[in-house]
Amino acid sequence: MPKKPHIAAIVQARMKSTRLPGKVMAPVVGQPLIWHILHRLKKSGLIETICVATTRDPSDDALAAYAEAQGAKVVRGPEDDVLGRLALASYAIDPDVIVRVNADAPLVDAAYVDYLIRELMRHQADFVTLKPGLSAIHDGADVMSRWALDKLVVKAHEDPIAREHVTAYFKLHPEFVNVAAIDLPEKWRFDGARLSIDTAADVTFIEAVYARLHAQAGEATLTDLVALLTREPRLLDLNAPAQVRVAQAGGTVLMRCDGSRATGLGRVRRSLSIARALCDREGFAVRFAVRGDALGVGAVDEAGFAVDGMPADMSEIDWLLSLAETHKPCAMMLDVASDLSATSVMRLRGADMIVGVVGDLSPRRLAADASFYAPVPQVFALNWEGAEAEPHVGWEWIALAQDTLPPLAHRETRPQLIVSLADAEMTVTAVRALAQLHCAFDATVVLGLGAPRDLEARVMRFAPNFAIVHSANELPKLMGEVDLALAGADFAACELAALGVPAIYLCGNENEAVRASAFERAGMGYALHVPDEAKIAAVVNDVLADAAQRRAMSAAGRMNVDGRGAMRIAHRLKQLVDERAEALAVPDTVVERRALAVR
């Protein structure tokens, strides 16, 4: 007789949520959020063990105690490694089948989860996903085999998608394990509902659902929910993100940006910041058009914006014109590294929209209605003859990944250093230089998404005590906690300046050195052109020894880059849209563009 499989649910929970801190213990319909999840999972006919995987951080002590009091097993692991916590929990309870459950899903449904488990076993698969085109009302649970998790830990633990999002790796790499695409019963089919808790509006939505259904806490069913939302679709407006609500008077803006594992997510992060300002401060609806892989598209989708990926069988301009025809935007922002031409930008403007560009040095900048730049020498060296509008150039026009940045804390501990460089060889050179220092310090090395597979091993060979970080999402937090950075004169340099972190800019070529000179002249750090280990070590040693100099660099960074660039760009775009609308409303009126002068 075959052995009955041990099926376990592992709930991944922690108190330090970035968007709604403490939400797992926050009351929803009179009970803590984590109570709803544990209560509903207990109704499963197949799940034998329920485990809560949380962190070792003291802030999670109350959560761990509560989960144990509710009868769940508790396993605690590292704070910055979701996959690692899941693996520790799996090792402790030894399941054959794992149901990974997010702790922000108050309507996780035992019947739906049991259906996924049965389909996994029926197909003898390692992971199940819905067939293309199907959308479920359910949210917050994935089912996988123990073997799939073990393989993920062994083969892909250093991949940032695997470490942070776990099962998303299977969706991006369906060949990695045996993935079964399954059908979905009609009773659970519904698209457009947000059932997770990330904001106060989400709590309002869940409580409104319970009130409409006259259900006791923990007893709302998915079938009743589908029927309710079909009858009362306006309930969905209660927690629809501002980005995807019905367009307000401002109209719709298309954000066109590039982002992938190979090129990084700098442009995506910058565009998201501008998009949030357009929505929250200027009243626009925003939609993204992204050229890149699933990582870039997924980052936008996770932020709550509607997003279209570029089809492989269309040219960029034909794709953008088709999106313009479908969504009727009043403006488009371009933050791209593609070969889109100036003629193409003119065609986009001819489709009744304002076009702006960010950090664009190509000829298409001349055809745009507005352009925005950091004050680096490359911009001033450009020929602007024939431009449609004067560029907006200055530190105040830099859009960061987020506009609200944490203050630089005063610390009495030994110096904290961070190495964040796009070039692998320069990273190794910097690490070798730091390893030569005789003073006491702690160092963190950030490895980009496109870093060579052997880079971590090379770093650890020279500096085994240095911390390694793979997640771009943690960069602003990490940067706010360091005393000195070794970085390139790129997007990260702007974030460092806004956080008041002194920097040494390591430049591998003349173009990088020219760009870094602008940061150096502004007093934010030192620029080293084609540096060797000895030169890096000497400058780092000097800067660490001079606290007054570091304070001056910190003040210069904060004074120049105030973190409000995205808001200024959004406001300027709103001005241009309003001016165009005003001109169209009054025949034969010429509206003078009030573009700001180059600084």
Tell me about this structure.
39% of the residues lie in helices and 17% in strands. By secondary structure, the chain is α/β, with parallel strands linked by helices. It folds into 3 domains: 7-184, Spore Coat Polysaccharide Biosynthesis Protein SpsA, Chain A (Alpha-Beta Complex); 245-402 and 571-585, Rossmann fold; 416-560, 3-Layer(aba) Sandwich (Rossmann fold). A 7-stranded parallel sheet has the order 12-11-10-13-14-15-16, with helices on both faces. α15 packs parallel to α16 (455-462). The protein is globular.
Helix content: 25-40%
Give the biggest beta sheet: 7 strands, parallel
The CATH topology of the largest domain is Spore Coat Polysaccharide Biosynthesis Protein SpsA, Chain A
Work out the strand percent: 15-25%
Question: What is the average per-residue confidence, as pLDDT, rounded to a whole number?
Answer: 87
**Structural class assignment:** alpha/beta
User: Under the CATH scheme, which architecture of the largest domain would be assigned?
Assistant: Alpha-Beta Complex
Q: Gyration radius, to the nearest Å?
A: 26 Å
CATH superfamily of the largest domain: Spore Coat Polysaccharide Biosynthesis Protein SpsA, Chain A
The number of domains:
3
How many beta strands in the DSSP annotation?
Answer: 22
Neighbour order of strands in the largest sheet? 12-11-10-13-14-15-16
Q: Report the principal-axis shape.
A: globular
Number of helices: 22
Uncertain segments are 243-249, 403-410, 588-599
> For this structure, what is the CATH class of the largest domain?
Alpha Beta
Separation of the first and last Cα atoms: 80 Å
